[in-house]
Amino acid sequence: MLHQKIPRQDHHYISALTNHSEKSESILIIDDEQDICRLLQLSLVRHGYQVRYVNSLSEGLKCLKDQKPDILFLDINLPDGSGLDALPGIKKQCPNLPVITISAYDTGPERQQALATGASYFLAKPFSVKNLDELINNIKS
User: Fold this and answer.
1) What CA–CA distance (Å, rounded) separates 32 from 52?
2) Three-state SS string across 3-71, please?
3) Where are the 4-aspartylphosphate modifications (predicted)?
4) Domain boundaries, the chain
5) Buried (b) or exposed (e) across 80-92, using 16+ Cβ within 10 A?
6) Which residue from 11, 93, 101, 139 has the highest number of Cβ atoms inside 10 Å of its Cβ?
7) Is the pLDDT reported for residue 137 higher than 60?
8) CA–CA separation, 58 vs 55, rounded Å?
9) 127-135, long-range: CB within 8 Å, 24+ apart, which pairs?
């Protein structure tokens, strides 16, 4: 086993322990709440993913252009824009990218809009590690 190091820039990275010959899947988290990002990151690394997070929509959109993740966690309400508004463009750019929208506002219409505009899943905050594990197992299967 070899720990893969990813260069640190303005983004926060943790990578999983992986076999040198294997390439683990990557996840991008776009959320302005540091605690949520860290919880997601630590939980997802346990599943073998390389995880990075950014705290603004503009940073996230730049990361999507530069490096294509295998899964995206997208907060709906960000300080510099709406994840819901950005979602159709993200799906146009990356049509096969599974997008999990996350929000503290779990209203029926917001959930429906997220799923109708291309989200694969909607994860309501606060969520438990068990909820996250179930979601990741659904994505993997």
Assistant:
1) 13
2) ECCCCCCCCEEECCEECCCCCCCEEEEECCCHHHHHHHHHHHHHCCCEEEEECCHHHHHHHHHHCCCCE
3) 75
4) 29-140
5) eeebbebbeebbe
6) 101
7) yes
8) 9
9) 127/102, 129/39, 129/43, 132/40, 132/43, 132/44, 133/43, 133/47, 135/100
This prediction has a pTM of 0.83
Place of tokens 């503009």: 58
The residue type found at 107 is: T
**What is the amino acid identity at position 74?**
L
Round the average pLDDT of the chain to a whole number and report it. 84
As a dihedral over the C-alpha atoms of residue 80, residue 83, residue 85, residue 88, rounded to 10 degrees, the angle is 130
